[in-house]
Amino acid sequence: MRITSPLAILACAIALVAAPAAATAQVLDDVDDVHPAFRGHGMWIWQVPRAAGGDPAGIAARARAFGVDTLIIKAAHGRTPWSQFSPELVSALKAEGFTVCGYQRLESTHAAAQARAGATAKAAGADCFVIDAEAELEGRYAQARTYVRTLRRLIGDDFPLGFTSFPYVDLHPLMPYSVFLGEGAATVNMPQIYWKDIGHSPSAAIARTVATNLVYRRPLAPIGQLYQRPTAKEITDFRRIALAYGVAGLSWWSWDSAVTSGWRAIARAVTPTALRASPPTYPTVRPGARSDYVVWAKDHLRERGYRVTRDTRFDATTAAAVRAFQSASGLPVTGVLDPATWAALLEG
User: Fold this and answer.
1) How far is Cα 344 from Cα 312, in angstroms, rounded to an integer?
2) Same domain, 263 and 297
3) How far is CA 173 from the centre of its chain?
4) Range(s) of the domain holding residue 328
5) Do residue 211 and residue 76 come from a single domain?
């Protein structure tokens, strides 16, 4: 769940854009339809024994005291279900009035077996499930598709499913966001906005996360940072800015590393801040690029009947399809995926 140091190095070199509140409708499509499991104030628990000694009553008392109503607990790692996510723990916390979700950190191989391990969370009584896919999954599209397809077969099409990964899509161009946030997969995007690791302010980190995730058209329920002892002001700023963007919900990584000042900061009453500058825009992607943005565009071109290759390359066939789509849509025919082309392609 932590961002690696290369991200911090690369991120500092790229300009960031903040968005006004008017941009919220662009970012959070159908936010009112987001499942309640993802709309609360959540806390992530990596190791249950480190949360009030693993005592459900103690966990419930502390969480309630600081305004937390959703607990997202590790249920599996790779092919291995974690015994801490037991039916007894889940039922005890739900009896205390909490929403309880499981999460699984994915590994790079054995996708179907990992899906079977993840599905045990539903069997234990989870209200929702979150896929945590990070560096191990970069470039592994086949594994991602197998995992999602198998998981959905096991948990059902309607079980609430979220996805969490790196916040800045453009720094991880071959992460299969398009699979994990595509048709039949997760309906909520939960980027890990750990501003101290990234090396940006909460404002800058949220702004860039919103901008680079815009094309996926999934409601955002960001994860904020409590490890590394962020200041109370940083935490409060993060909350105020996230609220200004109209996020579906907020959660925090993690109980295991939070200090008292962090708990107090997440409980403090806040109001949305005023956002400035221009709204975020879709990325400009040119022929020759290789990225998940290209995969996402190809998925939508294919849905509209255009013939494109099935890989990450913005090749000549893809450029021809983009030109044909632009011509049919009354747009300038450039063969470039510019913001206007994205807007037309993603409609409907």
Assistant:
1) 21
2) no
3) 15
4) 292-346
5) yes
